[in-house]
Each structure stands twice: as structure tokens, then as C-alpha cells.
Specification:
Shape: globular
CATH class: Alpha Beta
Structural class: alpha/beta
Strand content: 5-15%
Strand order of the largest sheet: 3-2-1-4-5
Helix content: 40-55%
């Protein structure tokens, strides 16, 4: 299988807003199944929608995203990777938010490239996490 890309919450948010032509063009060039999101990202997006009173436009945008991307479940191998990654990074003085650590561990566990616009992920050594900024 070709390289898989796991999108961070901030990238999916930009997709939902529909104002980033470069990002949308990049996505349309990739085959279905090559771009995925974590169930953690979905949880963050759902929280944001509920916090904003479920605006119809954003709900429809999320529905469209979910038609084109698989949501990967948080499972036992991902949880194991999370524990190891957090411990290793903490010992190196690297601390990310809990959700960012969960998403990074998910990318590592499924051997995907994390796509984010969050500079915090740049702290994670390249040997552990493949990161691209779209």
C-alpha cells in the first residue's frame, strides 16, 4: 500500500472551512483510503461542533469529510504505542498536549505520516514521527 496520511484536527478544520485551495487540491490528488483521521481527531471535531451549538454548515462539512476518509479506531496497539511514546518523549523533556500525543502515537502505530499545521509536533524526533505540513 502507498503512503498513508493521518490528518490532524487543525488540517481537517481547514478542509471543513473550504477556504484553502492548495490544501483541497492536494487532497483531490490522493486516492481514497490514503488519507485517514484518528478517532481522537473525530472526538475533537465533535466537541467543537457541540460547543458551537452544532452549526448546520459545519455539520455538513464534517459529514462530507467523513464520506471521503476512514476514521481509524483507537485500539490496544495504539494505546501501547502511546504509553511508550509519551514516556520516551517525556524523558527527553518533550511534552505535547494529551490529544496531540494521542494523535502522534496513532500516526506512529499505524505507520502513517502525520499531516498538521501545529508546530508542537516538530518537537517529536523525525526518527519517531513522520510529519508533513500541508
Amino acid at each position: 500500500m502507498s503512503q498513508r496520511f493521518l490528518l490532524d484536527t487543525n488540517v481537517v478544520s481547514h478542509i471543513m472551512q473550504g477556504r484553502d485551495a492548495g490544501l483541497l487540491a492536494r487532497l483531490t490528488q490522493l486516492p481514497v483510503g490514503q488519507v485517514v483521521i484518528s478517532s481522537i481527531t473525530l472526538a475533537e471535531l465533535e466537541y467543537g461542533l457541540h460547543r458551537k451549538g452544532q452549526p448546520v454548515r459545519l455539520r455538513q462539512a464534517l459529514t462530507q469529510v467523513l464520506l471521503r476518509m476512514d476514521v481509524l479506531p483507537w485500539d490496544e496497539p495504539v494505546a501501547t504505542c502511546y504509553g511508550e511514546l509519551c514516556s520516551t518523549l517525556e524523558a527527553q523533556g518533550i511534552n505535547l498536549s494529551d490529544f496531540d500525543m494521542m494523535i502522534a502515537a496513532h500516526a506512529v502505530a499505524v505507520n502513517a505520516t502525520l499531516v498538521s499545521r501545529d508546530k508542537a509536533f516538530a518537537q517529536v524526533p523525525v526518527a519517531r514521527l513522520r510529519l508533513e505540513i500541508w
